[in-house]
Amino acid sequence: MLAKYGKRIVIGLDARDGYVAVNGWLEASEARVEVLASEMKQAGCETFIFTDIHKDGMMEGPNVEANQELAEKSRANIITSGGVSSNEDIYRLLELRKYGVTGAIIGKALYTDVIDLSSLLQEVERRCSQND
Questions:
Q1: Which of 9, 62, 77, 96 shows the greatest Cβ crowding within 10 Å of its Cβ?
Q2: Which among 105, 22, 28, 115 is positioned nearest to 67, based on CA atoms?
Q3: Domains of the chain by start residue, with CATH
């Protein structure tokens, strides 16, 4: 599929303590998340959605360090998933653009009205235009 569709495919990587989680997050595999991402990058995948399952739904902020490390080691685009709980979390992730963290999924913080998406997007656009 990667050979045929390449850039159109985004692979989800769910991890617990650096290892790919499987079977509905019930088990950790023996595969390190950065190793699997690097292998899939070599096969043609350019973008991954990375979820640190310890952070997902906890409203405690994303695992910034793990996202940076995955982006650096895989040399792929990383979309952060899990833990975003404030505008400041997004601003911290913006600092990782230079490593390859290119997006974020915001879930619980949106449907609990903790984040106002409209004002957040305006501020993100402002910050990005200043830095480009």
A1: 62
A2: 105
A3: 2-131 (3.20.20.70)
> Checking phi first, is residue 52 left (phi over 0); if not, alpha (psi -120 to 50) or beta?
beta
Own/partner pairs, 16-25, CB within 8 angstroms, 24+ separation: 16/52, 16/53, 16/54, 17/54, 18/66, 21/53, 25/53
Q: Among candidates 127, 118, 62, which has minimal Cα distance to 94?
A: 127
| Residue 59 in this model has a pLDDT that exceeds 80 | no
User: Could you tell me the end-to-end alpha-carbon distance of the chain, in angstroms, rounded to an integer?
Assistant: 34
pTM for this one? 0.89
pLDDT of residue 56: 54
- Position 108 scores a pLDDT of 87
Query: Which residue's structure tokens are 């505008």?
Result: 87
